[in-house]
Amino acid sequence: MNVLVYVDHFRGNPIPASWEVIGLARQFGHVAAAIIGYQTEALTRAAFEYGADEALVIDDKTVDEYRPEPYASAFVKMVRKGALPDGTAKKFDLLLLPNTTRGRDIAAISAVDLNLGALVDAIAISIEGNETIITRPAYSDKVLIKEICTTRPAIVTVRPRAFPRPQPQAGRQGTVRQIRPAMKKSEIPTSPDGYALERMPDLGSAALIVAGGYGMGNDAERIQAGVAENIIGREGFYLLYDLAEVLGCAVGASRKAVEAGFSVYSIQIGQTGRVVSPQVYLAFGISGAVQHLAGMKTSKTIIAINADPNAPIFKVARYGVVADLHKILPVLYRQAKERTGRRIEERSALSLAEMDANARRTIRTPRYNYEIVDTPREYNWEEDDPEESDAAEKSA
Amino acid sequence: MKVIVCVKAIPAPETVRVENGRIVWDNASLIINPWDEYALEGALTFVEWKDLASPEAFSITAISVGDESAEVALRHALAMGAQEAIRIAGPAPEELDTRALACILAAAIRKIDATERVGVVLFGRQAADSDTGLTAAQTARLLGWPAITYLSTIKTALQKARLARTMEEGRQIVNTRLPIVCSVAKDIGIPRPPSFFARRRAERTPIPVWTMADLGLTPPKPLVRWGEASLPPERETTCEYLHGTPEEIAGRILDILSAEGVL
After folding, report:
1. Quick check: A195 contacting B, CB < 8 Å?
2. In whole angstroms, how far apart are CA B2 and each of A268, B41, B203?
3. Domain residue limits, chain B
4. Interchain proximity A247–B150, CB inside 8 Å
5. pLDDT, tens digit, for every residue of A272-305?
């Protein structure tokens, strides 16, 4: 069977989920890697080392920055070119992409262009006859469903960390086919105008995540001393970022911690945030509401630190510590620093400053939090349409 | 200029259970897909910003494909501040996949566009029942308009738009021209809860129904169907509690991290 795998990357930095997908694709047969970007030699080399047999490459300045249209058109062109160099004999039997924001965009648009069925977020794939069958979570990870695509090939996006990452073989080679870009610069409807980037490793592909919950703000001694809860929480997260820096891992937060202003939405884990599946999930002061568990319960090992022995997170945790996290976290940070020997670089200081700047943009009001996008805007929630109210009063 | 928000009525996640390999929610009433509330918030913010350079009036139309039960979502959209709502009576949900749905929505958007120019079409980032999140990009492709997925901010001046979209690495800022089709991420802002009077007004607003014949469309046969549903395997863990002084506990945690190979 011939499989085409889209190698997802951000400005040349590969997303590790791409290698997992190549590893999965090798179970089906011949693997071609679809590489779209600018100055992609390193990506191509890495794709071969992780198991691709062939690379279809569109290396052009017009696809330097990701946009859905040129990337999807490029992917469609690769599919149409076929698996063999003459472009006629064989077709692909399966098109795989990592389930990232880019992977989903490309899958969606290619499905329209190629008139194929698209399946997303697969955690298992099989091909039976002409049907491609996947298993995937739905209803916010509450149920697993089988989904069947009746076209061949099917377009399938694969959940990150659902399949093992293959061992790279240094120096492994393959054939490279250069393809011309599918769209001219003038045909691309959007132009990139910069980024505002996170400075942390991505949560989706992290092997270790340290996460903080509402408990980060609950330090009895300091509250008694008159320190506001959100300041304690914010400082707790600074320490968590420092810990993540010395451990070389990513930081997550629960919804309650984000809403209390301790941290920012982009690292929120759970039903309305990111879904993660690290090797180890180290939870500080997270009680483990169902909504949070939906985002992290597929983690291999969960270590929970919580003052409440009845917190539901202990039901899913492999290791539990019933203690005040504010006693453990500083000690853990010091010991981790000694053991790993990593130092906190300036990069971290910057990310903290950025986090603070972001956090300051969340204005708290008695009833609602608004994320301020650019300039503060105000709504008067209390005020209803006066005419309506008058009419209602009169009729009453 | 029209701002269109595509909404969906879904069973509330709490009411869903699995019975004989099928997903059932008994007689529980449907709710608006929570992600669509962010799309509506995005539309309302966008309309409130007002395009000062533009003499046009802006209005929001909510559309949804489905039977009468879909009206829940449309009425919520009206209560939040949409000016009008249109229900499109389409095939049964089993007869639809995201591409077929996108075809119907694209036809409806074209029909609206023929009477009043459509500037922005907004979707929630995904439906909280099927969790696919493909329809926005597919509708954009069918219309031939730029797809801006995971939109986090939007600003326009005349026909130009400057947008930020959220991705794993942060935000990407792009410039484009209207019309555009967006799926909206949570960072657009917290959806405003509708007031009591707005809800009452929404209950009384008539919702016109368009049929496939009105759109002059035969939706394509679905290429994807759902099979058996099951519950994810229960996580069987016994929690091993760590005791001792903070130093001992911290040491044990680091030992565990080393044993797991993540240090």
Report:
1. yes
2. 33, 15, 22
3. 2-215
4. no
5. 888 898 999 999 999 999 889 988 988 999 999 9
Angle between the B196-204 and B71-80 helix axes, to the nearest 10 degrees? 130
| ipTM for the assembly | 0.92
Whole-model pTM? 0.84
Give the residues across from B84 on adjacent strands. B61
* H/E run at residue A44: helix A41-49
Q: Are A5 and A15 in contact (CB under 8 A)?
A: no
- Band (pLDDT 50/70/90 cuts) for residue A375 is very low
Q: Any idea where the domains of chain A sit in the sequence?
A: 2-185, 203-371
Test the B interface: residue of A113, A298, A314, A373 with most B CBs within 10 Å: A373
Fold that domain B2-215 belongs to in CATH: Rossmann fold (3.40.50)
Q: What pLDDT score does B55 carry?
A: 67
Q: Token digits for A139?
A: 């209803």
**Closest residue to A318, CB basis, from B131, B138, B240:** B240
Q: What is the pLDDT confidence band of residue A379, given thresholds at 50, 70 and 90?
A: very low
* CATH match for A2-185 among 3.30.70.100, 3.40.50.620, 2.30.110.10, 3.40.50.2020: 3.40.50.620
Q: One fold for both A2-185 and A203-371?
A: yes
- Please return the burial class of A21, using the count of CB atoms within 10 Å of its CB with bins 0-12, 13-18 and 19+: buried
Q: Identify whether the C-beta of residue B136 lies closer than 8 Å to the C-beta of residue B5.
A: no
pLDDT, position B94: 79
Q: According to the CATH classification, is domain A203-371 in 3.40.50.1220?
A: yes
How far from A245 is each of A208, A237, A261, B199, B238, CA to CA, in Å? Answer: 12, 12, 21, 49, 30
